[in-house]
Design brief:
By secondary structure, the chain is α/β, with parallel strands linked by helices. Strands 13-14-16-17-18-19-20-21 form an eight-stranded mixed beta barrel, surrounded by four helices. It has a five-stranded antiparallel beta sheet with strand order 2-1-5-4-3, sandwiched between helices. It folds into four domains: about 10-130; about 165-270, Beta-Lactamase, CATH 3.30.450; about 285-440, 2-Layer Sandwich (Alpha-Beta Plaits), CATH 3.30.70; about 455-714, TIM Barrel. It contains 24 helices and 21 strands. Helix 1 runs antiparallel to helix 4. Pfam families: EAL, GGDEF, PAS_4. This is GGDEF domain-containing protein.
Length: about 725
């Protein structure tokens, strides 16, 4: 016995064989099964590529569905068997090794897209067939007219042998003759059908122009017309047809009869409706999906001047925890229950609820008074989530964050409205969740700007858009420049120079702070070496040092210490030229693992400064376990010293901190010194060094060199 094939190509061919065996019996083709299998092979290969692609390509899957129609797989059973085969075997043979959840989800989306592509191709094929029928009707008109004049026998052969329904009526609408195909369509006998009048077949779903065209034809003003029409059968069912009606004239050219040709399209229409439903509704909850919601929203926004809308965008809080703890099956049941509750909240005319995907839902309301109606709708939604949902014997509390957008139609596109609702929802989630927020254009603009900055950060570092400014650190005793703090800036192409408060939080959130911090460290140490080479080393004051800020994300990065060592060695700079500043809040509750890098830096000779001291509400006893050499006192404690006399409370606080620091052999640096009186008072209190606008604003490195030269020359 041979081994089961296990290569990707073998698996692909096995899937193709299974597919061809399932579909070939219901396919109208002259190919052999082996030839048909070869025709399916590139389609199977395309499905395999789509399943394993990084992004989801709906158009590619639609093309596969359309190709089935091109391969004459037009029987509805062919599509059903194809979807069953893809559902059962595509992931098994084409997904490869590894977790199957993501391929399963993508496989389901591929099936939906294939069905949509199949329906669209089938519709185009139907239109082509309709045109063919219209041409056949014109030809039949001449054949029937000639048969009536030439030979009743020849006419009867054409009439009865036609595969489509054929009926003849006089100009008053009385049915004169009908062939067997037409009788079978209606389920009537010839005697019963002959007693009917064409005008009796009015149907509620008739197109507006149907009977206008009919009247024009019987008056001799039109030779023929073609349209889709529904008829009521005696058993209560509806017959849908492609109907072509032609005018038959006598030998003198006067109108005499009307000839109807009918093709039964009921099954095709039902299939199209089913495919349309599946393409526009969520498979899990049955709610309208993103596609149908956008169609409805765009229709509302294009309704014209004076129309308004209200939209609620809901995201469940903590839904991932349900999936992670109870499993995806429990998460799905939770979503179904939430969908049912939301559906009960939107029952008024002009309201709808849809699922966008995952645990995100939207509710739409239209008509007058939407400002009030959308608030009421949001309140109903939040109240609907109060009652716990029972899943597998557990009562789960469901919370949600809701973003509300209300406004006039015509001012924004559907994508812009949904983006505003999404931003507002995340604002509600950031505020703690389980609440609703109303859209704010200014907040939207800030969020969009933040997103733009976040996406531009990686390339900004590559393009060299960052630069560093340096603010000198001055000794309060003798006024000498002892070093500088490195402050990174971003020269943005559109927004100009941005301070660190605009982009450092974004870099920390995305993890880009690690490569950015490494770059700042490299540039700062390189600059420290340049200063030492130009300025030399003061025997009393020591060499100029560079202070570099260290974020919590950098502190927890495993390569921090080695990266710093490598940078110092490449630059030929001793560790004592570097001081790393860590905020007090970053070290609150820090465990030994987090403090290990700081201890290693201290052992190397790198100074550690505790930045923003006094703002972190930390226990002062923690100073004993932190390897810090310098306390940087936050400017909030010294702001009251800018004028004379100084705030006595601030004086006592600063005096106490300085005394404590010196007793622990720690130096004290003060930030934000802006006046001479403030600097003098801090000197009297015993502070060691200071920085602020009183001495110099952050600037290029040359300015620090000039200040150091001035200090050296007196």
């Amino acid at each position: 016995m041979s081994a089961e094939p296990d290569g990707p190509e073998d698996r692909l061919r096995r899937f193709t064989t299974i597919w061809s065996r399932a579909v070939y019996p219901v396919t109208s083709t002259s190919l052999t099964r082996a030839e048909f299998e070869q025709r399916l092979l590139p389609l199977a290969r395309r499905l395999s590529e789509l399943l394993r692609a990084h992004g989801f390509d709906a158009d590619g899957a639609k093309a596969v569905g359309a190709a089935l129609v091109g391969a004459h797989c037009t029987d509805p059973e062919a599509l059903a068997r194809t979807l069953d085969c893809v559902d059962a075997y595509l992931v098994l043979y084409c997904a490869g090794d590894g977790p199957q959840d993501e391929p399963r989800i993508r496989c389901s989306r591929l099936q939906h897209a294939m069905a949509a592509g199949y329906a669209e191709a089938l519709r185009r094929r139907t239109l082509a067939e309709q045109e063919s029928i219209a041409q056949a009707a014109l030809r039949a008109q001449g054949v029937v007219a000639q048969a009536l004049h030439a030979s009743e026998a020849r006419f009867r052969a054409v009439f009865e042998g036609a595969a489509i329904g054929v009926g003849i009526a006089d100009l008053d609408g009385h049915v004169l003759q009908a062939n067997q195909a037409l009788l079978r369509m209606f389920g009537l006998s010839e005697q019963t059908l002959r007693g009917r009048r064409v005008q009796d077949w009015v149907h509620p779903e008739d197109a507006p122009q149907t009977w206008k065209l009919y009247d024009e034809l019987v008056r001799g003003e039109r030779e023929h017309y073609h349209l889709e029409k529904a008829f009521n059968r005696p058993d209560g069912t509806v017959l849908w047809t492609n109907l072509t009606v032609s005018l038959l004239r006598d030998a003198d050219g006067s109108p005499q009869y009307q000839l109807a040709l009918m093709e039964d399209t009921t099954e095709r229409r039902l299939l199209n409706l089913r495919l349309r439903y599946e393409a526009t509704h969520d498979a899990l909850t049955g709610l309208p999906n993103r596609t149908l919601f956008f169609e409805r929203l765009e229709k509302v926004l294009n309704a014209g001047e004076g129309q308004r809308f209200g939209l609620c965008y809901l995201d469940l809080d903590g839904f991932k925890t349900v999936n992670d703890s109870l499993g995806h099956a429990a998460g799905d049941r939770l979503l179904v229950e939430v969908a049912d509750r939301l559906q009960s909240c939107a029952t008024a005319p002009g309201e709808m609820v849809a699922r966008l995907g995952g645990d995100e839902f939207v509710a739409l309301t239209t008509g007058p008074g939407t400002a009030r109606k959308v608030d009421e709708l949001a309140e109903r939604i939040m109240n609907a989530l109060i009652t716990p949902i029972s899943i597998d014997g557990r009562d789960l509390m469901v919370r949600g964050s809701l973003g509300i957008v209300e406004g006039p139609a015509g001012e924004r596109t559907a994508a812009e409205v949904l983006r505003s609702a999404d931003i507002t929802m995340y604002r509600a989630k950031s505020a703690g969740g389980n609440r609703s927020e109303l859209a704010d254009p200014e907040a939207d603009a800030r969020a969009i700007t933040r997103h733009g900055l976040t996406t531009a950060l990686p390339t900004a570092l590559e393009r060299g858009e960052f630069f560093i400014e340096y603010q000198p650190l001055v000794h309060l005793g003798d006024g000498s420049v002892r070093g500088a703090e490195a402050l990174v800036r971003w020269l943005h192409p559109q927004h100009g120079v941005l301070g660190p408060d605009r982009f450092i939080p974004l870099a920390e959130h995305t993890g880009l702070i690690v490569p950015l911090g490494r770059w700042v460290l490299e540039e700062s140490i390189r600059q420290a070496r340049a200063w030492r080479e130009r300025h030399g080393e003061d025997a009393a004051a020591g060499p100029l040092r560079i202070n570099v800020n260290l974020s919590p994300c950098q502190l927890s990065h495993p390569g921090l210490v080695q990266d710093t060592v490598d940078i110092l060695e490449r630059a030929g700079v001793a560790p004592d030229a570097l001081c790393l500043e860590v905020t007090e809040s970053a070290l609150i509750g820090a465990d030994d693992d987090l403090l290990k890098p700081l201890h290693r830096f201290a052992e190397m000779g790198v100074d550690i400064a505790l930045d923003d001291f006094g703002t972190g509400y930390s226990n002062l006893a923690n100073l004993r376990r932190l390897p810090v050499r310098i306390l940087k006192l936050d400017r909030s404690f010294t702001r009251g010293m800018q004028q004379f006399p100084a705030d006595p409370v601030d004086l006592k606080i600063v005096e106490g901190i300085v005394s404590l620091a010196h007793s622990l052999d720690l130096a004290v640096t003060v930030e934000g010194v802006e006046t001479g009186a403030q600097a003098e008072q801090l000197r009297i209190l015993g502070c060691d060094t200071a920085q602020g606008w009183y001495y110099a604003r952050p600037g290029p490195p040359e300015r620090l060199h000039d200040l150091a030269l001035v200090d050296a020359t007196g």
